[in-house]
Design a protein that fits this description.
The protein has 343 residues and is α/β, with parallel strands linked by helices. The chain has one domain (24-328): Aldolase class I (TIM Barrel, Alpha-Beta Barrel). It is 35% helix and 13% strand. It has helices spanning 25-32, 36-50, 94-106, 123-137, 154-161, 177-180, 186-198, 215-226, 256-269, 286-294, 314-323, and strands at 55-65, 111-116, 142-146, 165-167, 202-204, 207-209, 234-239, 274-277, 299-301, 327-328. Strands 1, 2, 3, 4, 5, 6, 7, 8, 9 and 10 form a ten-stranded parallel beta sheet that branches. The longest helix has 15 residues, at 36-50. The N and C termini lie far apart (53 Å). InterPro entries: Aldolase_TIM, BATS_dom, Biotin_synth/BioAB, Biotin_synthase, Elp3/MiaA/NifB-like_rSAM, rSAM, rSAM_sf. Belongs to the radical SAM superfamily. Biotin synthase family.
Length: 343
């Protein structure tokens, strides 16, 4: 039987040689339930077995097509179903995007991530973003795109243009997916992830916490990510950014320890993945971010804007990384100790 490279691992005999361990939701819940410091300690040990804990991967985000999205994701300020203050923008011009990518590179980013508020690209959109990807890749940056659901052949076209990563999140526990998004299904996300894998692109796949979910639902999200086979190379853990006008604008605050637990459980269950401390950092005290790095986060969005909302600026992040003796990925080799991010 031939297996899809991104098949969801199952406990049954249908997949005799899974690449890694199958995570039952109850086992992931048991990790969440560990005493807090035991969990962080265990995650830190796993992190140190697989990574240099001083290295942080830096990705800069740019929204290349903003707002007016036909999907109704309850968290998203870019959905046309919600009434937010966001101004819609057409696809940016390639020169403008390259200028932003050059600035990100000069400031120390290693990867440039481009996001578009589409349900999925049309064939002419794929042609347009392919030209953009080629131009960014030519600068020597890693490239990542997040353009929504892909049709047959699109992932291959993006790969050919020089795309390294495709970001497509599972976002929440599969069991509550349709409470958060009504215009597509969890299975649609899995279908696009399969296309991305088969085209040979690296997978960036994570989710959002702080959407009034239970701890058990956070465990369900992490289990669904950890059971992707192979596991995603990059796992963004986003804390909901509450935007006025979205259905989740008044969601309850998530206690900071629950966020750190989520990072730690992601690290333990996906030991070889980069775990990104993603959206929500603008509201996180430095000490909380430090705790996330201890618990195994080793990637951040670097630059003062996410897609449409605020992120800490580069100067602040450079200072924080200095205080914690952290270095951009690739700068911690012999002879580069103490290397700083150029601002
Ligand atoms: N439209 C494409 C899609 O949904 O895959 C790509 C862009 S979409 C904005 C990328 C990701 O941003 C979503 O999957 C979600 O995880 C994250 N996101 C959107 N709004 C957010 C918010 N308010 N807080 C945290 N993360 C958010
Ligand atoms: C991801 O997981 N988080 C990023 C990126 N992938 C595309 C997006 C965060 C968006 C936060 C809300 C906004 O700025 O619009
Ligand atoms: Fe559209 Fe993506 Fe926002 Fe959903 S998360 S509304 S698909 S831009």
């Amino acid at each position: 039987m031939s297996l899809s490279p991104v098949a969801l691992r199952r406990e049954t005999a249908c997949q005799p040689h899974p690449t890694v361990h199958y995570w039952k939701k109850c086992d992931v819940e048991a990790l969440f339930d560990l005493p807090f410091l035991d969990l962080v300690y265990q995650a830190a040990e796993v992190h140190r077995r697989h990574f240099n804990p001083r290295e942080i991967q830096l990705s800069t985000l740019l929204s290349i097509k903003t707002g007016g999205c036909p999907e109704d994701c309850a968290y998203c300020p870019q959905s046309a179903h919600h009434h937010t203050d966001l101004a819609k923008e057409q696809l940016l011009d390639v020169d403008e995007i390259v200028a932003k990518a050059k600035i990100a590179q000069a400031r120390g980013a290693g990867r440039f991530c481009m996001g578009a508020a589409w349900r999925g690209p049309k064939p002419q959109d794929v042609a347009a973003v392919s030209a953009i990807i080629r131009a960014v890749k030519d600068l020597g940056l890693e490239t990542c795109g997040t353009f929504g659901m892909l049709e047959e052949g699109m992932a291959e076209e993006l790969k050919q243009a020089g795309l390294d990563y495709y970001n497509h999140n599972l976002d929440t526990d599969p069991e509550r997916y349709n409470d958060i998004i009504h215009t597509r299904r969890h299975e649609d996300r899995m279908d696009t992830l399969g296309k991305v894998r088969r085209a040979g692109l690296k997978v960036c796949c994570g989710g959002i916490v702080g959407m009034n979910e239970t701890r058990s639902e956070r465990a369900g999200l992490i289990a669904s990510l950890a059971n992707l086979d192979p596991q995603p190379e990059s796992v963004p853990v986003n804390q909901l950014v509450k935007v006025a006008g979205t259905p989740l604008a008044d969601a309850d605050d998530l206690d900071w320890t629950e966020f750190v637990r989520t990072v730690a459980v992601a690290r333990i269950t996906m030991p070889q993945s980069f775990v990104r401390l993603s959206a929500g950092r603008a509201d996180m005290p430095e000490a909380m971010q430090a705790m996330c790095f201890l618990a195994g986060a080793n990637s951040i969005f670097y630059g003062d804007k996410l897609l449409t909302t605020e992120n800490p600026d580069e100067d602040g992040d450079r200072i924080l990384m200095g205080k914690l003796n952290l270095l951009p990925l690739g700068k911690a080799e012999a002879g580069q100790e103490g290397a700083e991010i150029q601002v």
